């Protein structure tokens, strides 16, 4: 729209007068023309590229045949394309969460969930697109399309196989939580760290460290949400790229083992990473956490789930689906008062203060949690977070960092680290290459020859020795590796 000159002039004068009534706004000197409109929560929110790093919607796609283009009530779910538009969400990481109940077919389940995300993007090409890089996110935003990304939730999904890790990357997964609530064969989880019946590793095994290294090389973001404290610190020592916590809040404010201590927040700052605040009531409000973790209340919930299983058994013997469970838990959770929105903002504020403004973001856990703070009923309510941050004195630039810019920076750094690692010309054989030869039944004598020619780029730790033996490596081969590394 073009304004008539004199009308434009009048509007400028009005803006000038308005600006002067706000003492905290810079007054305009010497009749200079104001360059920008005063920041309103709405203008800040609408001009931001907003990135959420954790939503559990794929179970709805796959198990409930939910179409993201359908408008749904907030009781049915936190996300659909209409709500995404209302909340001005630019991109989300859909969680490829593999429930441990799928033992024996973790990878299959992960691939089914991955497929369900692609199906949604194919169904709504005008409003949604798959994205795999930071540039993709920006491009989608410019085209006014919602960018769908994916992160694997739970390292057990790779079934202890580095090739599957690479395959998940190829299929588009751009982060992986090293664990979910279950400790796997190579990394400890915060979810069962107190359980004496679980075999723990004091953090990570050598294989776990190799997973981190391979993720760095691939350009897959290391996600420390859900992991035990020891796993967290070890992952930071190994990783050459910044890490994220895709959906974790502050333990100082809410004493849940899933949350990050102040020391961990400072470690993420030093690593250059970002902590994405989880909206779950039990992670952001100490009263809610205490009330909902009462053993009697938990018993009551578990009894309701058991009763449901009896009355509604699945014909194929599959467990209570995630969504059925969520619906039961939502009813159960309604007995605890929802925390005020302030609780969520306090967590963002605390992390911004301890880790720094460059190291905090949003990891809602939409469609994966049964209670959200008051005022946040779905992704459509994201503008309320901007409004609350503005009221707390955060500037436009700071709010934009929290809403997405911090994460985008980390994603770019992870991509740059991968390019750097992949560019290093190395003729030496990697552990993965030796394992691939063993898997392909290359004669051990031939592998020994190749090792003599090219050397190896890895140490033969006791854990790796055991692993290679399990893959039929003999003493001659192990000796050849040890000798090659000594050179
Ligand atoms: Zn989670």
Protein model, in words:
With 487 residues, the chain is an alpha/beta fold. Helices cover 49% and strands 9% of the residues. It is built from 21 helices and 9 strands. The chain has helices at 5-21, 41-46, 58-64, 81-87, 106-123, 134-142, 162-171, 206-218, 229-238, 262-271, 281-284, 286-292, 295-311, 322-333, 341-354, 382-391, 396-423, 431-439, 444-454, 462-470, 475-486, and strands at 50-55, 89-97, 128-130, 146-153, 173-177, 221-223, 244-245, 274-277, 360-362. The strands form 2 sheets. Strands 1, 2, 3, 4, 5 and 6 form a 6-stranded parallel sheet that branches. α10 links the parallel β7 (244-245) and β8. α3 crosses α5 (106-123) and α9 runs parallel beside α10. The termini are far apart. Mean pLDDT is 91; it is low at 1-30. Bound molecules: zinc ion (ZN). Zinc ion is lined by residues 153, 226, 247.
Explain the layout of strands and helices:
Layout: H1 5-21, H2 41-46, E1 50-55, H3 58-64, H4 81-87, E2 89-97, H5 106-123, E3 128-130, H6 134-142, E4 146-153, H7 162-171, E5 173-177, H8 206-218, E6 221-223, H9 229-238, E7 244-245, H10 262-271, E8 274-277, H11 281-284, H12 286-292, H13 295-311, H14 322-333, H15 341-354, E9 360-362, H16 382-391, H17 396-423, H18 431-439, H19 444-454, H20 462-470, H21 475-486
Parallel strand pairs: 1-2, 2-4, 3-4, 4-5, 5-6, 7-8, 8-9
Bound molecules: zinc ion.
What is the ordering of alpha helices and beta strands? HHEHHEHEHEHEHEHEHEHHHHHEHHHHHH
Rg is 25 Å
Shape: globular
Quaternary structure of the protein: single chain
Quick one: biggest sheet?
6 strands, parallel
Q: Quick one: how many beta strands? A: 9
């Amino acid at each position: 729209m073009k304004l008539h000159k004199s009308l434009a002039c009048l509007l400028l004068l009005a803006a000038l007068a308005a600006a002067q009534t706000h003492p905290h706004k810079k007054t305009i000197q010497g009749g200079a023309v104001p360059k920008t409109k005063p920041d309103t929560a709405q203008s800040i929110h609408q001009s931001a590229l907003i990135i959420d790093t954790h939503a559990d919607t794929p179970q709805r796609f796959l198990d409930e045949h939910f179409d993201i283009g359908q408008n749904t009530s907030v009781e049915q779910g936190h996300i659909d394309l209409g709500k995404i538009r209302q909340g001005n969400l630019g991109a989300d990481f859909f969680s490829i969460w593999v429930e441990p109940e799928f033992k024996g077919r973790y990878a299959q389940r992960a691939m089914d969930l991955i497929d369900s995300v692609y199906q949604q993007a194919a169904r709504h090409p005008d409003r949604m697109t798959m994205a795999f890089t930071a540039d993709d996110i920006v491009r989608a935003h410019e085209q006014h399309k919602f960018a769908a990304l994916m992160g694997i939730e739970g390292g057990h999904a790779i079934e202890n196989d580095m090739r599957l890790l690479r395959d998940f990357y190829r299929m588009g997964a751009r982060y992986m939580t090293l664990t979910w609530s279950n400790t796997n064969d190579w990394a400890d989880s915060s979810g069962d760290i107190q359980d004496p019946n679980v075999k723990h590793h004091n953090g990570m095994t050598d294989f776990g460290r190799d997973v981190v290294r391979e993720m760095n090389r691939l350009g897959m973001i290391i996600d420390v949400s859900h992991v035990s404290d020891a796993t967290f610190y070890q992952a930071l020592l190994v990783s050459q790229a910044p890490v994220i916590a895709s959906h974790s809040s502050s333990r100082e404010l809410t004493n849940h083992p899933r949350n990050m201590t102040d020391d961990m927040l400072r470690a993420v700052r030093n690593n250059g990473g970002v902590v994405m605040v989880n909206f779950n009531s039990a992670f952001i409000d100490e009263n809610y956490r205490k009330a909902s973790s009462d053993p009697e209340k938990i018993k009551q919930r578990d009894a309701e789930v058991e009763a449901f299983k009896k009355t509604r058994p699945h014909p194929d013997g599959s467990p209570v689906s995630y969504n059925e469970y969520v619906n039961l838990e939502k009813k159960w959770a309604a007995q605890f008062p929802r925390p005020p929105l302030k609780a969520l903002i306090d967590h963002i504020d605390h992390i911004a203060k301890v880790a720094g403004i460059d190291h905090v973001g949003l990891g809602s856990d939409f469609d994966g949690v049964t209670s959200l703070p008051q005022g946040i009923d779905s992704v459509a309510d994201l503008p309320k977070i901007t409004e609350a941050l503005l009221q707390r004195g955060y500037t436009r630039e700071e709010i934009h960092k929290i809403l997405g810019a911090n994460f985008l920076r980390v994603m770019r750094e992870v991509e740059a680290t991968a390019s750097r690692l992949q560019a290093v010309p190395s003729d030496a054989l990697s552990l993965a290459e030796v394992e691939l030869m063993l898997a392909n039944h290359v004669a051990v004598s031939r592998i020994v020859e190749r090792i003599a020619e090219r050397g190896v780029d890895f140490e033969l730790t006791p854990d790796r020795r055991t692993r290679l033996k399990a893959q039929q490596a003999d003493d001659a081969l192990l000796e050849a590796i040890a000798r090659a590394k000594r050179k």
